[in-house]
Amino acid sequence: MQRLWDWFDERLHLAPLWEVLQENLRKPSPRHVNWLFTMGSALLLLLGVQLLTGVLLMVYYKPSGREAFASVEAIMYEVPLGGLTRSAHNWGSHLIVIMALLHMFRVFFYGGYKKPRELTWIIGVGLLAVILGFGFTGYLLPWDQVAYWGTVVATEAPASIPVVGPITREFMIGGNEVADATLGRFYVVHVFLLPLALMGMVGLHLFLIRYQGISSLRRTDEPEPTPEQNLADGGEPFFPHHFLKDSATMYVTLGVLVSLALLYPAHIGTPADPLSTPAGIKPEWYFLPAYQLLKYVPEVVGVNMPPLLLLILVLLPLAIDTSPERHPGRRPRVVTGWIVTSVLILGLGVLGHLSETTRTVLGTAYHFDVKGMPHVVEITDGEGQD
Amino acid sequence: MSDSPPSGPTRRWVNALLGLGVVGTITGFAGSAFAYLWPAPGGAGSEFLVGKDGLLRAEDIGPDGSVVGRSRLGKILVVRRRDGLVGLTATCTHLGCTVAWNGASGQVECPCHGARYNLHGEVLNGPAREPLTIVSVTVEPDGIRVRPQLQG
After folding, report:
1. pLDDT of residue A29
2. ipTM for the complex?
3. Nearest CA to CA, how far is A289 from chain B (Å)?
4. Of A185, A277, A297, A367, which to mutate for an interface test with B (greatest number of B Cβ within 10 Å)?
5. Measured between alpha carbons, how far is A277 from A149 in angstroms, rounded to an integer?
6. pLDDT < 70 regions, chain A
7. CB of A208 closer than 8 Å to CB of A123
8. How high is the pLDDT of residue A206?
9. DSSP states of A83-102 as a string?
């Protein structure tokens, strides 16, 4: 082993690099770093699982309108452990969005996005956009009715943007309607372009986190504590202390993912039929707020809302919250705005989920119309929901 | 002989030309990729209505029933009424879902966001704002021919 190291060191002079790495691993984290700071690692694990399961799925998946559905069915029912692989990929996509949002909330409430870490935050927002892009493009790939029509609605929406909308849509889906050409495009974006962007951005994000260190709780106009101060203040070296916490969270996340994949396997509906839209088409849960919003406001408003929210997130450390305070209690306006916006988004999502269903609440049956408004209805076939 | 890089008007010209060459190369590649990715024009399609399993026929449509098929005019919904066949574009003007005829309500309905139209294509209930387009439907031995409705 030593000879191997010497061989490389003689040629590449690795000793200084090794020293930097050692120093970085020994660097003490601030005392306030706790289990909440392990969500980024869990996210990294989930992204790794997606990459691995995605590559495995690519071996058998056929990205054409004629073959896609059958190839997914074959993966699920004929390929050994294919069902588990697809289910893990499917559940992984949900858990990634959940974990990314939790991670973002943690950074927001700790004020970690503030100077000098604005760039890390902005790359993080970019990563959130990439993750949503994965969800958007991957949704179509099984080529079943839900996938097809969910994509029709989602890709039709940008067409309402004045002037450039129709051309953008046509370019995006490769024609006038969602078809074979769309599948090819989405496939390339999903399995090549987005992973490429993801890997570059994750690398930069992690580098900045390690290079700048974990944010302190001090005001931004006060000097950041040195590693020595962190150590004296009760902080612990990243390795092995925080590394072990990270590893534990990653294992628990992996356990949750595999359990969900085994207990609730992903299913596939009926093959896509462009001539018949089934009732109750809804997008993935994380697009439900945008879906529901489209029912209340003109398309051009609804379509631009998600990108606008991402832009607001980008501007958060640059223009919206530039005060030196990190403590959430000392920046009430931004925190209130964040909570109100989150509740509104959550509320829209819940309305989107409930809309066009009939549910029984405390013995009374309600039908939730397209706008999510409840109407009392007579129960004719016992309790239940649709 | 000086070690400093050459300067002067000639060098500036050469630098500008080199820069232009690089920009031109990148633009050429980007433009070619864009042209490559631009959707090819689709086929003209048939004047006769085609379903999943081939040409649709008027006898496939029962009393107060309907079919949806493709034609040169896009996806078309044909509804049988007592006084004949009525044809409408079948793509909801809200977000592109395929509408369906509901014989019970006597309305054309979109399953996605609940838009409703009458058989004249007019919007009865949002979120759609634009009407569906009426098309001319004729029954011929080869199938159901759909053509744009003549104005006036």
Report:
1. 87
2. 0.82
3. 14
4. A277
5. 7
6. 379-386
7. yes
8. 96
9. HHHHHHHHHHHHHHHHHHHH
